[in-house]
Design brief:
The protein contains five helices and no strands. By secondary structure, it is mainly α. The radius of gyration is 19 Å and the shape is elongated.
């Protein structure tokens, strides 16, 4: 999304502010540049959500059976938040390689394909790059 592209370029140090990143992308690439890496974003978000949401539900069921006599409704908000954070951490860890590729596509893949980005990351950093 445009917001993600602007954020990534600012965080990567390519621009000093979000406004400068927005102006720079529009000047260099036009509106199309704001969607650079969009398919990488979708490719990351779909598996992330597909893992996170069912894992969260499973963690709530496990927690309820262990601590609230099986009553999911008795899980308190801070407990549910901790379970959600745990599910998010697992999902993020498992989908991190796709996130690395997505970020590279957004901050300057320069027309490279996903396969080229994967190859570049691997050559430069090995498996740890993902």
């Amino acid at each position: 999304t445009p917001g993600e592209v602007v954020k990534q370029k600012t965080q990567a140090g390519q621009y000093p502010s979000n406004l400068a990143a927005l102006r720079g992308v529009l000047a260099a690439q036009g509106p199309r540049g704001l969607y650079q890496g969009y398919f990488g974003l979708v490719a990351r978000d779909l598996p992330f959500r597909a893992l996170q949401l069912p894992l969260y539900e499973q963690l709530k069921d496990w927690y309820a059976s262990a601590y609230t006599a099986g009553r999911v409704d008795d899980i308190r908000p801070h407990q549910a938040a901790a379970l959600g954070a745990a599910a998010g951490m697992v999902a993020a860890g498992l989908t991190n390689p796709v996130d690395v590729i997505k970020t590279q596509m957004m901050v300057g893949a320069g027309g490279r394909s996903v396969a080229q980005v994967v190859g570049d990351v691997y050559r430069q950093q090995g498996l740890r790059g993902f």
